[in-house]
Amino acid sequence: MKNIMVLVICFIISSFGYAQIVTDVDEISPFYEELSAIKKGDQWAFINNKGEKIIDFRSDLVSSRTEDNSADYPLFKEGRCLNRKLKDGVYYYGYIDKNGKQVISSQYLNATNFKNGYAIVIYLEKEVIGFNESLGKDVVSYTLKEYIIDTSGVTIKYLDNARNYVKSKYKTEDLPRFYSKFIGPHLIAVQTTDVLKYNIYNF
C-alpha cells in the first residue's frame, strides 16, 4: 500500500512539473514566423512557440543566411522554407510549407527566400540540338534561366539573362550565382551579358 501511495504522489508531481518535449538538440535558431529550427546531427526540424515539434527531423532543409549574416539555419519566409533533393549528382531546390508539405517542387538549381511575395529561381533548361551518330547519343545544350515566382510557384516573369551551363564544371555543392536582385517590392535589377551593366524591370 505504501508503494502505491509513493507512485501516486510521484505521478501527481510529474503531472504538474515540466514536460521534456525535445532532447539532445545541437542548435536552436531564433523564431521566424513563429517557428524555430532545431538541429540534431545533420538534420533539422521545426518547433512552435509551445515547444511542440511540428516538422520532424529531416535532411533536406536548406540553411539560409540571416539578413545581418550572423547565423545560418533553415527558416520560413512568407510561409515557405527552402529544401533540396539530389538528382543525378545535382541538388535541386524547392519549398515546403509550415506543415512540411512540398508545395513548390525541387526543380531549381538555385532559389532565394521569398520577399514581398516573390522569389528568384534559376532553372536548368535542356535542349537537344543534334545527334552524335558515332556515340549514339543526343547532343544536348544546357542553359540557365532566371525567373521570378510567387509563393504558389507560378512564374511571374522571365529575366532576360540566359547563360550556358556546363555540368562538369560544378561540384555537387556548387550553386550557380544569381544575376538578378530585387531592389524594390516590384522592381528587379537584371545583370546583362555586359557584366558591368544592369537593366531594371517593373513586374
Structure description:
With 203 residues, the protein is mostly beta strands. The model is unreliable at 1-17 (pLDDT under 50). It has a six-stranded antiparallel sheet with strand order 7-8-9-10-11-12, with no helix packed on it. It has a four-stranded antiparallel sheet with strand order 1-2-3-4, with no helix packed on it. Strands 13-14-15 form a three-stranded antiparallel sheet, with no helix packed on it. It has one helix at 2-15, and strands at residues 27-28, 36-40, 43-47, 53-58, 64-65, 72-73, 81-87, 90-96, 102-111, 118-132, 137-150, 155-164, 180-184, 187-191, 198-202.
Give a brief description.
The chain is mainly beta and 203 residues long.
Uncertain residue ranges = 1-17
Number of helices: 1
Strand order of the biggest β-sheet: 7-8-9-10-11-12
Derived structural class: mainly beta
Which shape, going by the Cα principal axes?
globular
**Distance N to C terminus:** 77 Å
The arrangement of helices and strands along the chain is HEEEEEEEEEEEEEEE
**How much helicity do the residues have?**
under 10%
Annotation, overall tally of beta strands? 15
The radius of gyration is 23 Å
